[in-house]
Design brief:
mainly alpha, 12 helices
Length: about 260
């Protein structure tokens, strides 16, 4: 008998349905409770547009930075041997498991005006990072880069190295092999990692509010705007949440169709 044919085992159906309901019903609740008659007016409010633009722009910039630094890091972890490689890999995954607010505190201790590095940036260049738009980007990079590194490293480990060896045999240098052979092979993995990275950056809250603060027009991203609106205007919070949800779903669906074979 063919494995997997016929009806699925009934003990798995009920938990699966409960899992789907648990994930979908909160989203349905947003749609049902949204104040649709006032949606257009609320979405076009200057504060909403400013928060939305800040979220989209900073998430995009942070994703680009994650690609610049994360792809080489993933290549080192996947293709080279060096002392402490496992320890470095463990450190890279730490932002995945620590509370984001702890990441914000850590960024303050390093890049704050009296931080390990921030004191020199302030003294030598007059550069103060916390509570600026740059702080928003750095907070997003900190929490989102591990998603990219893990995805790209997995793609590199699964790629067929014979093509790289053949290119090297034909005289191609390491940079050429990486750019012309390795990178095209793992491009779907890079795209998938970028999707996860962008989505994580777009929804970042804890590290942002701790390291960048919550200043409208400067550091107030959409998640922070949702949090503030929830305290005074629940309907506005629902509208902001719905906008953030729709933007995330639209971008993820578009990029998934382009990059991910599913």
């Amino acid at each position: 008998m063919r494995v997997g044919s016929g009806r699925p085992p009934w003990p798995l159906i009920l938990p699966a349905l409960v899992g789907v309901a648990f994930l979908v019903l909160p989203l349905v609740g947003l749609v049902v409770r949204a104040p649709w008659p006032d949606m257009g007016r609320r979405i076009t409010e200057p504060e909403v547009l400013a928060a939305l633009w800040l979220s989209l722009s900073t998430a995009t910039v942070s994703t680009v930075l994650c690609l610049v630094f994360g792809v080489p890091l993933a290549w080192l972890l996947a293709r080279t041997e060096f002392p402490g490689r496992r320890f470095v890999r463990a450190l890279v995954t730490v932002p995945l498991v620590i509370p984001p607010v702890v990441g914000g505190v850590a960024l303050l201790l390093v890049l704050g005006r009296n931080g390990l590095v921030g004191r020199y940036l302030d003294a030598w260049f007059g550069l103060t990072i916390p509570f600026t738009s740059l702080a928003v980007v750095l907070a997003q990079v900190f929490v989102a880069m591990p998603f990219l590194v893990i995805s790209v490293e997995g793609a590199l480990r699964g790629a067929d190295r014979r093509y790289e060896e053949a290119a090297a045999t034909l005289g191609a240098g390491r940079v050429t092999v990486f750019a012309r052979v390795t990178l095209p092979m793992v491009l779907p993995g890079v795209g998938a990692g970028a999707i996860l990275c962008w989505a994580r950056a777009l929804g970042e809250f804890g590290a942002t509010i701790t390291f960048a603060g919550n200043f409208p027009g400067t550091t107030q991203t959409m998640p922070l705007a949702v949090y503030m609106a929830l305290q005074s205007d629940p309907e506005a919070a629902i509208v902001l949440s719905l906008v953030l949800l729709l933007v995330s779903l639209a971008v993820l669906a578009t990029l998934r169709e382009k990059w991910v074979n599913a």
